[in-house]
Amino acid sequence: MSERLRIGFIPLADAAALIVAVDKGFCATEGLDVELVREISWANVRDKFNIGLFDAAHLLAPMAVASSLGIGHIKVPVISGFGLGVNGNAITVSPDLQAAIAAMAEGDVADPLVSARALARVVAERKALGLEPLIFGMTFPFSSHNYDLRFWMGAGGVDPDEDVRLVVLPPPYMVESLANKHLDGFCVGAPWNSVAIDLGIGHILHFSCELFQRAAEKMLAVRASWAEGHPETLARLIRAHDRAAQFIEHEPNRDEVCAILTAPGRIEVTPELIRRTLDGRLKVSPEGRIRETGRYLLVGREAAARPDPVQGAWNYAQMVRWGQAPLSAELLAAAKAVFRPDLYDAAVGTPPILPIAPADGIGECTGTHFDPDDIAGYLSALTIRR
Amino acid sequence: MDPLLKIVIVDENPVRAGILTEGLREAGMSQITYLAATTNLLARIYEIDPDVILIDLENPSRDMLEQMFQVSRIVKRPIAMFVDQSDTASIQASVDAGVSAYIVDGLKKERMKHILDLCISRFNAFAHLETELHRARSALDDRKVIDRAKGILMKAKGLTEEQAYVLLRTTAMNEKKKIAEIAQSVVTASEMLK
């Protein structure tokens, strides 16, 4: 008899392993009858997951950490034995802002440090002229998109709370808001950056993998209490998703994968949009300029599926940096404990080999060394923080 | 309940919002603002400065509200969500019913429980109403298609209305299908044969 599970998800490219695991039958092979429930907001996914309407959920990595620490909402300890994606976001700006940044840039604007310093000059100039601050959209207070934008701005000397305005918007509204000039830029996951490019209203300034070599994006999260009661089910779930991730990463399967992901009830965009993300070959300007990277979104490749406690520490450090959480050894330990490589290893067998591992586990473009055991030391090197 | 409690209802469905507003008014609340559109939601909420925000779960602007609470926390105006951490039963019931409540900290728990209970029963009443409406509508649709099928059979086979209906009914029974389904296939077939 197969076990019934309900999993909540948001229609995004990094829900790929979830969708393929169900629709390609990998869950069924493990004796799991999984119902995927599409949700409209992260708050919905979190609430339904927290109260047990979902057995597992597609969660933003920072959201899994916040839930475990009890910040922003009720405290529900969460663990994850499977990472749904590493990297995968991009910063898109309006053509006007793109031109302003390019004009102010000293050096190659493709370098995030160059563009961030140029942004600081644009911001200063606007201030001198008495113009309204620039407005940037992101998806949730506890999201990689929020931290990506803040990190990039901070690296160039822009204070994200003082010099610009950061607002939360649902991804579909983001594109619309950039089009009608309510936003000057945004950071979001796939396929929304590409949607803006195709509409001719934005330029992709940076992929998030240009800011960090490895940043955990979404997790397959379960409640710690549920995991305790269902260890075998969790192991099967991890195995099914690992097989799905491998299937997705096997290049000859890409057409099929894109067809599965874009089916009705799943992501519902054109297969071509998803394909760009998975292939890491993205159109970055309305004129059709292409930028390629081997690391736009990692689904299972380079050990992306294996949760890394360093990511928990890093996400927690961002929360402390921006005033969302106090600094304490206890909270740090709780943040790390969300990421459970041991559960992944036990379910899948041998741990995967990590071919490109940055020394600090993150690989920040600023070269700052991140020490997961010394958050205070890491933060003291940063001038802009709360 | 305190009639001066400021309540904001954010719902894209005016019928459901109406049911909720009515219920809250019956309970003695007078300061209720209904926001249908989500454009400029945050600015409007700041302006109203409500004690309680009720928002339907299918509203994508919920994530936006979460940001507002984050900011509020930083400006030392703490806001709690739902009743309190321990009251998971209330949270579950409210999420099940499709409503999410955001409550300004400092509001008496008992009072809030009251509002939440009222909302849940109202939302459930709405869901019930919707199911009823759906059922009534499909019954009406069924009637229409059966009438059309009877007309087709009467004309094509020279039957009376009574005989046409009996034919539909016996066929449905033999095929273990609903009369409306058989009627629909008669209509479809006749359109194809036109």
UniProtKB/TrEMBL annotation, chain A:
* GO (cellular component) term, any one: endomembrane system
Q: Does the keyword 4Fe-4S apply?
A: no
Q: Where in the cell is it found?
A: Endomembrane system
InterPro entries this protein is in? NrtA/CpmA_ABC-bd_dom
Indicate the segments annotated as coiled coil, or none if absent: none
The alphabetized UniProt keywords are: Cell inner membrane, Cell membrane, Membrane, Transport
Matching Pfam families, A to Z? NMT1_2
Q: Which SUPFAM superfamilies match?
A: Periplasmic binding protein-like II
- Work out whether the entry's keyword set contains Oxidoreductase: no
Q: What is the name attached to this protein's record?
A: Nitrate transporter component, nrtA
Automatic annotation (TrEMBL), chain B:
Q: Which InterPro entries match?
A: ANTAR (IPR005561), CheY-like_superfamily (IPR011006), Sig_transdc_resp-reg_antiterm (IPR008327), Sig_transdc_resp-reg_receiver (IPR001789), WH-like_DNA-bd_sf (IPR036388)
For this entry, the protein name equals Response regulator receiver and ANTAR domain protein
State the taxonomy lineage. Answer: Bacteria, Pseudomonadati, Pseudomonadota, Alphaproteobacteria, Hyphomicrobiales
Residues the record lists as 4-aspartylphosphate modifications: D56
Instruction: List, alphabetically, the Pfam families matched.
Output: ANTAR, Response_reg
Task: Provide the Response regulatory domain boundaries.
Answer: 6-120
Highest taxon in the source lineage: Bacteria
A GO molecular function annotation here is:
RNA binding
Describe the location of the ANTAR domain by residue ranges: 126-187
- Which keywords appear in this protein's UniProt record, sorted alphabetically? Phosphoprotein
ATP-binding among the record's keywords? no
Q: Which organism is it from?
A: Rhodopseudomonas palustris (strain HaA2)
Name its GO BP terms in alphabetical order: phosphorelay signal transduction system
